[in-house]
Amino acid sequence: MNAVVFVDLMGTFVFAISGALAAANKRFDFMGVCIIAFVTALGGGTLRDVLIGAKPVGWMENKWYLITVLIGVLITFVFYKRLQHLRKTFFLFDAVGLGIFSIAGLEKALSYGIEPTYALLCAMITATMGGMIRDVLCNEIPLIFRKEIYATAGLIGASFYLLLNYLGLPIEFNFAFTILVVIVVRVFAVKWNIGLPKIQVD
Amino acid sequence: MNAVVFVDLMGTFVFAISGALAAANKRFDFMGVCIIAFVTALGGGTLRDVLIGAKPVGWMENKWYLITVLIGVLITFVFYKRLQHLRKTFFLFDAVGLGIFSIAGLEKALSYGIEPTYALLCAMITATMGGMIRDVLCNEIPLIFRKEIYATAGLIGASFYLLLNYLGLPIEFNFAFTILVVIVVRVFAVKWNIGLPKIQVD
Amino acid sequence: MNAVVFVDLMGTFVFAISGALAAANKRFDFMGVCIIAFVTALGGGTLRDVLIGAKPVGWMENKWYLITVLIGVLITFVFYKRLQHLRKTFFLFDAVGLGIFSIAGLEKALSYGIEPTYALLCAMITATMGGMIRDVLCNEIPLIFRKEIYATAGLIGASFYLLLNYLGLPIEFNFAFTILVVIVVRVFAVKWNIGLPKIQVD
Description:
The structure is a homotrimer. By secondary structure, chain A is mainly α. Chain A has a domain at 3-141. Chain A is 75% helix and 0% strand. The first copy, chain A, is built from seven helices and no strands. Chain A has helices spanning 3-25, 30-52, 64-84, 87-111, 116-137, 151-166, 171-191. In chain A, helix 4 crosses helix 7 (171-191). Chain A is globular and about 50 Å long. The relative contact order of chain A is 0.13. Chains in contact: A-B, A-C, B-C. The interface between A and B is medium-sized, with 30 and 29 residues.
């Protein structure tokens, strides 16, 4: 397993737990929790693969994706109560996952000959659509439509990564710097409650 | 029309009626009922085809799929009240449909060179995602996330079928035995109210 | 930019504003409004492309699709209140968009070798599924399941267009006539409150 797949699996793990927690709060059974965890972790990448015409979809090419989702579900089953007390840790993990999936989505789209503009959209789709589908399946209005700078943080991160690669910097540096940018954007957005502008309805 | 397509159409018919009934209960108009019946019956197979890269999707290759859905809708329109009294018959039909679609999904995935593990997932997707999309479109939380052993029954059936084929038994026997397994699992799950474990939330 | 793309962009523009207005009414932020506008305008065509196996999806082949959606969003941001007073204009625009997307969906499906029956379904999918996904993401039951003759108007328009082309009439005439048919059907359906039959539930 190379480094790229390893960090992608880290993102998968974080989002699988996020999905499993949401499903547990809705009192879904084991199968329901598995489906929601799967969709949250792999739904964004699946949508990207379908849009760019990658076939079969990415998670069918490496068993570790399924195994990672299953581990995330089992950990949520066993440690549900303790996970409730780790909100701050989770927030950080989630930001890391957001950054990882943005980069992974960008790289895969570029490797399929997709132009940079669309590849940036693919980055955002990879990082946020899993969570969006999770919310739809749980019959909630997707968080990303209202949440403090979230999809935008992924887009900013992916843009930085693209720029740094274009400048010819070493990829390890670009990767670490991008994740840092996403974390910083998320931390400040939440800390200072910064949101994007809304249309004045009233 | 060969035997495989015929049984697949039986599954399509059962699920189309199930979708049409759900849409009727939501007071959708004729077009709405058609769309929900179509999605319930053919949505799971469509998702599977998109994931494995089959193109175009299966229901575009044989007119009988559309015709069968339309017949299911018309029957629901004409016999709506009588269908309400056939709950037990329907339960059985639904279990048969679940088994048929699991096998059909498994076979199609394998025929596209998908590995057995993923083919089993494709079986489950074929059999259950149509109903899941139906529930999402009706603005309900999908039943399969909470229902007594349902998606799991499809997965158990598909696993049996895969095992029996591996053992080299005649395919007619495997088919019949798998459907029987799915029916038995469903009947016992509902009769004894057996569900999968849930996460202890409180 | 040729004439076909230009009219397709007109449809995109109308549906992007329709999506942006729906998102604004739900108090989504700028990113949420962009996502809903994008999905409403391009979701139907994307689904069609995925079903017929066009890759990558259409909006990745011409930057003007994204730009048009963005212009629609910006106009909604700036002129939100004035747009509220243009309901009648919008109703007309929406009918034009419905007609344009039906024709565009039909043409693209036929150009991929899809049979006429399925191409008609692709026309309806192109014209209505974007709005359906918009409603699902906004956690509403899709309008098209209950609305006066809407998806049906698109289907009627596409059928006319197919017939006129078959008769060998000049394409500009067929296009204009089809749009007119869709507008007429919509106007009369709404004016006289004509709906499709529903199943008698009680």
